[in-house]
Amino acid sequence: MEEYGSYNWNQQGNEPQNNTPMEPKKQPGKRNGNGARWAKKIGAVALSAVLFGGVAGGVFTGVTYATGATAKAQSTQTDSSKQETTKTTLQTTTSSGSTGSSASGQSLDVSSIAKNAMPSIVAITNKSVQEVQDYFSMFSRGSGTQEQEVESQGSGIIIGQNDSELLIATNNHVVEDADTLSVCFVDDQAYEATVKGTDADNDLAVIAVKLSDISDDTMSQIKIAEIGDSDQLQVGEQVVAIGNALGYGQSVTTGIVSAVNRQLEDSDSENGFIQTDAAINPGNSGGALLNMQGQVIGINSAKLASTEVEGMGYAIPVSTASPIFEDLMNRQTRTKVSSDQAAALGIKGQTVDSSIAEAYGIPQGVYVAEVEKGSAAEKAGITSGSVITKFDGTSVKSMDDLKSQLEYYAAGETVDLVVKIADNGSYVEKSLTITLDKADTSTTVQNGQQGQNQPGASGQDGNLQGSILR
C-alpha cells in the first residue's frame, strides 16, 4: 500500500498541463485522450501490483522452502543421532536392502514377513557330554553311568555386531551345558559360536560368532533383526513365529496374541509372557515372534509350552529381554581355560534345586556345606551354610552351573559373587569379591557326602548331590 500511494502521488505531481484553450467541439476528443491516459495508468498500477505480489510470493516461498529444508535437515540429524545411539547399545536397525514396510507402519502379509525375517534367524546346535545310566547296569547291582555326547537344537536371532563379533540372542536353556556350539545361517553355512553371557533367571542368553570366521558371501545374506515394541501389543493382534522347529530347519507359523503379561508358575522369571496360539514346538526356543510389521516383539520359548494343551505357546516380551540383552552383549567373551590355568573356590557345595528351595525355604543355588581353610572362599568371607546365587553376574542354579562357569576363569582372576546368608531363619543377600585359587588338577571331583537331613537355616548338611570345587 505504501508503494501504491507513492505511485499516485508522483503521477499527480508530474501530470503535464495543457495551456492552449480547448474548443467545446474538441471536448469529446479530450475525454477520449484522458480515458486512454487513465487506462494506461490503471494498467501500470495493475502491473505493479502483479509484480509486487509475484516478488512477495517468491520471497515467501523461498523462506518457506529454506525453513522447511532446515527443519528437515535438523530432523535427519536427530534421526541419525538416534540410530547411532541404538547401534551402540542394541543394534536393531534393518539392513539397507530390506523391503519391509515397518517404517511406515503398514502391515505386511505373512510371506513378506518371513522373507524379510529369515536372514535374521539362525539355527543353533548344542553338543554336550552328559552322564547317562549304563544300559548293562540295569541287570546288575549298582548304578553305573557312562559319558555320552548329547546334541540338542534351538534357534536364535541376530541382534547386533561389534568390531569382532556377530551377536545372537537366544534362550539360556538352548545353550546351557554346551561343550561346543554351532550356528547355521540362512545360507545353510554353519560356524562355531561361544557364549557371550547368560541370564538363567529370565532364560536368556547371547552368543557370539567371530566375524573373521564368517565368509563374505554369508555376511551379504544375513542382517540384524528389527526390534519392535511389545508393550504396544493388543490381544487378538496377528503374530508370526519363526524358528528351527524339531531341528528340521526354519519354519513359519502364524496366529494371534491370546494374552499379554501372562504369569506362569513353572517359570523362574517374575515377568509376564506373551501367550499365542501360533505353534511353538521344540527347536523353536530362541526364535522370533514378530508383529505384522516384521519386527521382533518376543523370544519364543518351547520350554514354557504345555505338552497336554494345544494352541498355547509363550514368548518372552522383547521389552523384558532388551535391557538384559544389552548387558549380555557388552560382557567379555570367554573361552575355556587350559587345565594348567584352572581355578577353584575352595568349597564343598551342594545343589539346592527348586523343589528343595520351596520345601525348606532355602534360596535356590549352591549350598556351601564346607569351606576349606586358607582357601579363596575363606579369604573372601564365604561361610558354611550360605548359598551362592550368582557368579560374576550370572545366576547359579546348581553345582553344575558353578563348575561350568569356573571352566572359563583362570586362577588369580578376581570375580564378584552374590551369596545369601542365614540370619534368624531368613536369608540376607551379600556381595563378595573373590580372587580364585589355582585348582589342584590331580584331585578328582567327588560327590558330596550324603546325610540324613536336608540343609536348613542352621547350615547342616543334607541329602543333596554335590561336588568339591578344587
TrEMBL record:
The record ties this protein, via PROSITE patterns, to: PDZ
The answer to keyword Transferase applying to this record is: no
Tell me yes or no: is RNA-binding among this UniProt entry's keywords: no
PDZ domain: residues covered: 334-423
Against Pfam families, the record matches this protein to: PDZ_2 (PF13180), Trypsin_2 (PF13365)
Record keywords, A-Z: Hydrolase, Protease
* Gene Ontology terms describing biological process: proteolysis
The protein's GO terms of the molecular function aspect are: serine-type endopeptidase activity
Q: Where is the composition biased (Low complexity)?
A: 86-106
The UniProt entry, under InterPro entries, shows: Chloro_Bact_Ser_Proteases, PDZ, PDZ_sf, Peptidase_S1_PA, Peptidase_S1C
Q: Where is this region: Disordered?
A: 1-36, 71-106, 443-470
Query: Which ranges are annotated Polar residues under compositional bias?
Result: 7-21, 455-470
According to UniProt, the name of this protein is: Trypsin-like serine protease
Organism, scientific name: Oliverpabstia intestinalis
